[in-house]
Amino acid sequence: MTKNDVYERIAEIFEYPGSKNLIKYLKILFKPEEGELLLEFLEPVTCEQVAKRLNLDEKVLSEKLADFKRRRLLFNKHDEYLFHLAMHGFFARIAKAKKEDIPEGFWKAWDDFMPEVEEKMITRSIKVAEKVPVGGIMTRIVPARLAIDSNPNIKPEDILPEEDIHAMLRKKGSQEIIAVSDCDCRVRAQRCDRPVYNCFEFGKYAEFNLNQSYSLKVISIEEAIAISDEAERGGLLKSGGIRMENGGVLCHCCDCCCNVMGATIRHGVAHQLRNPSRYRARVDSESCIGCQECVERCFFGAIDMMKVPGSKKLKAFVNEEKCMGCGLCVLGCESKAMIFDLVKPPEYLLDEHEQGMSPFSDEAAPVWRSFTSAP
Predict the structure, then answer these.
(1) Are residues 264 and 305 in the same domain?
(2) Chain center to CA of 2
(3) At residue 273, what are phi and psi to the nearest 5 degrees?
(4) Is 238 a domain residue?
(5) DSSP class of residue 3?
(6) Which of 123, 227, 282, 308 is the most buried (most CB within 10 A)?
(7) Rounded to 5 degrees, what are φ and ψ at 280?
(8) Across the 375 residues of the chain, what is the mean pLDDT of every consecutive 10-residue run?
(9) Has residue 146 been placed in a domain?
């Protein structure tokens, strides 16, 4: 296998055949001979098995595998090792390595490749969404709990567990571990100054990554709630699979840096791929001072400034069809003119279920899922 053949083979595994940007990115991460060795780990296998297969000294190979693990190129569980089989997860794990273990040029190469990743993800997501009868495939919008709390007319019994992030975190924390790390999207892009330390992982998924020298920290339920509240105030939208049993993630996304949620917004398909919450924002025009902070905080283009008879200032108006019910605009309104109303009955969430787009191919998904979740 020639030097370029190694990188092209791995690009094919990641489902980006012939991508010059991906190959440039891979060349930054490992040498051709290292790539050949990584290809021996497309299924869970032990150091001993590979040493015998390649006629290598097991001790020398063990040291190399430890180096791969430190650099986030291989992952292990017990005595087995596996190469990551999906492009996005591969990047995310390397991005969370120690700074000294991230090679020079990594972030620039990833930025150059990102448009290809977004285009493929959006194309695949739309195809899947067309087959889903209940709407979006990337989970329903989870409303900001602090926005719900801002409306005294919403009683505690009106709030469903599936839309109460505090309740969800308490449930998760009572059954599984909660861990947090920096958001690799904002660390990479650095296009805004929103909070960074709010990327949650749960259960077996977190346990697996903690075992990989991952830059995760186990936190308490109360710490998780505090981080969640800070993210809401900072203008971040909740996204991910927190409702998944025994595992899952919870991202806090912005529209400018995020590789997934932000991509759906930038490509104009967020409303097609996400379902709104049961809540909607509206404006008390008399209280609105025309500061336009709500316009800045709305990711979905749902708020416009319009002239109002008798007022010299433009006032905010919410387009109900575009509003996704996230509540971020409510939390940014100092004049308290933005009101968060409950507009849908509980039955609206009856079809709620985690679907999400898998970054893995049909062949790779069961291999990785089994490796990360099994005891």
Answers:
(1) no
(2) 36
(3) -105, -10
(4) yes
(5) H
(6) 227
(7) -140, 150
(8) 84 92 95 97 96 97 95 89 82 80 89 89 79 59 95 96 93 93 88 95 87 84 98 93 71 90 86 89 96 97 94 94 96 97 87 46 54 55
(9) yes
